[in-house]
Amino acid sequence: MFLFKFAKGNIKFKVENAVKDVRNIKIRTYNDVRLDSIPEVSPALIRKTLKANNITYEDGYTCFIAQCAFCHKSTNSTKSTSKLYINKTTGMFMCASCKRTGQWNDFELLTSRISKKKHKPEDVEEETVNMIKLNESLSEIRRSTKELKGVNTPAFEDVLKRFRLPIITNSALANLDVRLTQDETSMYFPLENVENEIVGYRRIHSHGTSDVVIPSLLYGGVLTARVPKSKETAVLVPNISDFLVLLNTKVSVNIVCLPNSVSNLPLYVLPSLERFRKLVIWFGSDTNSWDAARHFAKKLGENRCFLIRPTDRLKLPHLDEAQDFKAVVSNAQPMWHKSITTFASLRADVLSDLQNMDKVQGVKWKRYPTLNKILKGHRRGELTVFTGPTGSGKTTFISDYSLDLAMQSVNTLWGSFEIRNARLARTMLQQMAGFPLDENLQEFDHWADKFEKLPIYFMTFHGQQSIKVVMEAVEHATYVYDIAHVIIDNVQFMMGMSEESKHIDRFWKQDALIAAFRQFATRKNCHVTLVIHPRKERDDEDLTTSSIFGGAKASQEADNVLIIQDKRLTSVRGKKYLQVAKNRYSGDLGVMALDFDKSSLSYQQKKVKEKKCPDVTEEKEEQLL
């Protein structure tokens, strides 16, 4: 991500929308994943650095836990037990006492100063400023609000109804500093760090607008209800409604409400979850929730994660408050097994799959219902190979295809090696709007604001890149941003034609790249779409799986093979259509007509009128073959 520093002046920074207003000049930033923002770090390197600086540490689930050497007296951090949490994967560090946080290169710089005894005044000043800003922000919220638990019972229930929250007793909030604005339009929930210190508030609005963390998520605060008798177990829930229902029933475990629901799990909250030896993940039964539960478990450490599997009988707490919550939590199944030797180990998984068959099939496309009939949906952990003739609209289609999924909260990482990100983003923006924005500039801000909220990230590569560099970027983005769909457009541009590679077999190089992405998709449970040019064929011949450039590995390793067939080149009345040539999930094959709408730059399928026979569209598509 880009980092901007501005001089003093009339500057406003709106974190939640990544829009900066500088003296009335609006600057928009893409969610770019830059190579120089990816730290070269590994657990072995972190251990080596800590030992070299004589820093003792503990090996946690997601972090190394060491005594903070950066705390100064000026921060009033006099405790000798100030703990520094260093993320094992990225090297990002955080101290709950002095509130210092940064990336791995910042940590190396600070430790080198300490070892050379070259403390700079700015270091102490930065800590002091951080503490002052945090305390001022918290004090301002407390001054301008009142405690919700102080509201009498009839008015208390009215407030909960206004915010569309479940009705709970006033006493349930006895140990929670939930606050309400004087006009009763905003509610603030306290966020605690790993030291049980309030470091922020999560603001919700009665009108249902997006939640906001104040002052910042960087302090590592999460909404937590602590139970003294059970310090080592916590239930993770996706929303405040579930949090309040469990809080009201007094389950004998800690309750944690994740900050971004199931969309992603920020690195900054991982230290706050280090204290729990057992984490019970209770998400919904929809596809995104199910995938997020498995993905978050890998991020949190699968050996301590348990899953409440979504079935018809087990629903989210706020959907069925009559459940026996204690029994549900105690019967949660482990996510991780050393070995699976019998069907009994898989029985719960099979039952869950059968009861949620439509959800197991994956995320459905809204723009391409025919694809849903053939592929059934977009699933994590699969590899899709996409090919078509030069100029047939591969990039245009795949951007529309991925936009459809991103609009349904599928976190997407784009690696566009052939066209620049600005041009790709412009295409996707017009596809989202559905009309030419250059002719309707007054609509730009409206649609750009909507597009910014989509979970789409762009790699800043262009042209040839090595497999190692690209895989490092993809692995990093998947961990940090919880990516569920990676697109590489296209493989040939990524491999390039460098002087160093002229002695390397291009087929072997491409096979190595495909093998790397196949392994990544399976290991990280992430869907990968590879755009590959076909080898040169005669114009009057259809492309097949054998037409994909390179060896046979691409079509062998792929779960899905999609081919654009363009008959317009050989026939006046020829059509263009998408052929599903391989479908490992259901085995169904077929075609989908591609009718390009130039005004929206989209191949979105038009809805069939009710008067027409529903089989007409399918018959026409069959005739295309």
TrEMBL record:
<keyword id="KW-0446">Lipid-binding</keyword>
<keyword id="KW-0999">Mitochondrion inner membrane</keyword>
<dbReference type="GO" id="GO:0008289">
    <property type="term" value="F:lipid binding"/>
</dbReference>
<dbReference type="GO" id="GO:0003697">
    <property type="term" value="F:single-stranded DNA binding"/>
</dbReference>
<feature type="domain" description="SF4 helicase">
    <location>
        <begin position="357"/>
        <end position="610"/>
    </location>
</feature>
<keyword id="KW-0472">Membrane</keyword>
<dbReference type="GO" id="GO:0043139">
    <property type="term" value="F:5'-3' DNA helicase activity"/>
</dbReference>
<keyword id="KW-1135">Mitochondrion nucleoid</keyword>
<keyword id="KW-0547">Nucleotide-binding</keyword>
<dbReference type="GO" id="GO:0016787">
    <property type="term" value="F:hydrolase activity"/>
</dbReference>
<keyword id="KW-0378">Hydrolase</keyword>
<dbReference type="InterPro" id="IPR027032">
    <property type="entry name" value="Twinkle-like"/>
</dbReference>
<keyword id="KW-0347">Helicase</keyword>
<dbReference type="InterPro" id="IPR007694">
    <property type="entry name" value="DNA_helicase_DnaB-like_C"/>
</dbReference>
<dbReference type="Pfam" id="PF13481">
    <property type="entry name" value="AAA_25"/>
</dbReference>
<keyword id="KW-0496">Mitochondrion</keyword>
<dbReference type="GO" id="GO:0042645">
    <property type="term" value="C:mitochondrial nucleoid"/>
</dbReference>
<keyword id="KW-0067">ATP-binding</keyword>
<protein>
    <recommendedName>
        <fullName>DNA 5'-3' helicase</fullName>
        <ecNumber>5.6.2.3</ecNumber>
    </recommendedName>
</protein>
<dbReference type="InterPro" id="IPR027417">
    <property type="entry name" value="P-loop_NTPase"/>
</dbReference>
<dbReference type="GO" id="GO:0006264">
    <property type="term" value="P:mitochondrial DNA replication"/>
</dbReference>
<dbReference type="GO" id="GO:0005743">
    <property type="term" value="C:mitochondrial inner membrane"/>
</dbReference>
<keyword id="KW-0413">Isomerase</keyword>
<dbReference type="GO" id="GO:0005524">
    <property type="term" value="F:ATP binding"/>
</dbReference>
<keyword id="KW-0809">Transit peptide</keyword>
